[in-house]
Please model this.
Amino acid sequence: MTEDKQLQDELALYGVHLTLLEQVYNWGRSNSLWPLQFGLACCAIEMIASVTARYDLGRFGSEIFRPSPRQADLMIVSGTVTKKMAPQVVRLYNQMAEPKYVLAMGACAISGGPFKGGYNVVKGIDRYIPVDIFVPGCPPRPEALLNGIIHLQETIRRQKLSGPGKARHADRDQPSEYAIPEEGGRDLVPQYNAETWRPSWQGGGK
Amino acid sequence: MLDLETIIKRVQEAVPSCRIELVSNESHSGHHSLLVDDGHAVEVARFLRDAPDICLDYASNVTGIDWLNSTVKEKVPVTETVEGEEKVNEKTVEKTVPGYLEVVYHLYSMRLKQGPVILRMRTGNRDPDVHLPSLTPVYRSAELQEREVYDLFGIVFDGHPDMRRLLMWEEFEDHPMRKDYFPPEESDESPIDEQARPKQ
Amino acid sequence: MERMASHYRKSGGRWLGSGILRGMGVTLKNWIGSYFDPSRLVTVCYPGERLPLPENSRSFPFLIYDGDDPEAGLRCVACRICEKECPPECIHIENERDENGKPRKRPAVFDIDISVCMSCQICVEVCPFDAIEMDQIYAISTNARFEPLRLHKEQLLKPNEYFRELSPTRSAAADARREAERAKQAKKKEAGKKG
Model:
């Protein structure tokens, strides 16, 4: 689990306790993800369908979708993010309290999807906010969204809270709030948040 | 009753100074339209709404069309003198038809359950700042749709109670549905992203 | 009291709140009934239980190969019709070329960007060789944005048997079409030999 000798020694002082605490902490967080009531377009309908009785997102702890970002810890960006809506999405993300996660659901939220060449479409919300899980599909089935949530739960359980490779919310050097894009004359300014995102052929992507 | 020829006659009786003509539609739907001049469009619309037997009281759709400058090849008879003889030949001449912007209204009658009657208005040219009269005082449902046409084509509707953009934000400068719109360049666009751009 | 009386009068005999109680009654009936009647338990507990998908449900395309060797049995000849017809342009194909630069009838690169694909199935409809078909996989969420969502040729190749299991009707139709085409080509060859 730990590769650094110094860290191992440090952990030996309180080692067993820290590991157990981390696991319990991560288990509690992953099994009670409260999503934000946030649906933009057609993928929102599939998200609603995943909350209905047949697929039941409530089994995974996401029983209540919170209307306020202050109370939510998962933002499922479901649907096309238009350039007019993008500043509001980033604002809502900034208002969520740490630890917070973003799930980009559907082709439009990941990359602009079928509307990539459009005049009012952001080519993927990960240009402005950090996204943890991408669920492709147009729209993804409710089971695909459930699979995405399960994947997110596994990601959370693997997160470390100290040492190298610790989670984004535990790292004081990582930002908690991201720059809100402004509406310029022809496009959003900036076109992407250069501090956190690069196009793929410039080495972007985790 | 909704025979377009009859409607044209009735309109010309009611609004004598207007210029109204039939624009035929060769396609499958056969939805011919009436081209009205901008000076009298509001009066014509009001007549069409208020005449009890026409009663077109619902504007269901307002849309814009951008016609670019186009060149038309025409065969023109030209008299030429060849070896002392006068011959009439046909020469192919290219003419530029200036472009314009157009607004199209689809009008239905809710009370008489008839329709559609299609109204068109044309601007003189494709300048960045073109004006047309608004039919919102006559048809309330045209209010938001004319805002959309203004946003996407740049046609300013005079007489509209709230003339501002609908889909794009206020500071946006372009009119995206004009045929000469090109999307903003990505600062470092890759070949794959460029593929996804609409072809100009 | 006044309000309840006026509500009773105006609604023609319904007490205030009776609608809510009736709805709650339905929920209670379903809950108690679920202990006796299993059909009232409608939840399909993913990931343990899966809902069987209808035959024509589709998610992303895949390439078909005949036989056992994916490279040898590949049906795609890199005609690039699917690349041109794809509305969001998510397919990227490059022809394999031999030493002289002449294109071989095989794709060297066949990438589908599933972060863009909208599952419209147009690529399947236009393929003249029945080389590309729609798959039903949906459990493909990823952590990273670019590379895992760009499926390459090796990840897209699946055998014809897989397609037969997935969709018996469509694979039977495709097999019949290919058989007819093969018979036609054989007849032409026979006629050519004789003549």
